Amino acid sequence: MTDPQDPYGGPPPPGGYQQPGHGPQYPPGGYPQYPPGGYPEYPPYGGYPGMPGPPAAGSGLAVGALVCSIFGVVLCFLVGIPGIIMGHIAHGKAKRGEADGQGIAMAAIIVGYVGIALNIALFALGAALGFLGYA
Fold it and tell me: Are 93 and 51 in contact, with CB atoms under 8 Å apart?
């Protein structure tokens, strides 16, 4: 019977402690042998068969066009012109499948044209009010 004060159950077995068996247990012949030619080859770039290829380019040009178009509305129509140009380029790339962000590019084009129209209208209103002597 074991002592209740000894939680480990008594003296160690004769011969000392043994290390627990971790990892794969190989047969007595040694490590497994690979076929001639070494390790198996990796699949070609693009993944395994049936997997999609590399992703298309991001929508950085479209986002830049939208930022320029928004600044064109707020600051001056001169900043909106590069936004419109970049928006058309990004929209063309997205339609051809070379990049993402077709919707963002279209939004940049629309916001750029609206910003130019608003800036021209405000400039014309200011000129008219100045001509009439209200400004």
Answer: no
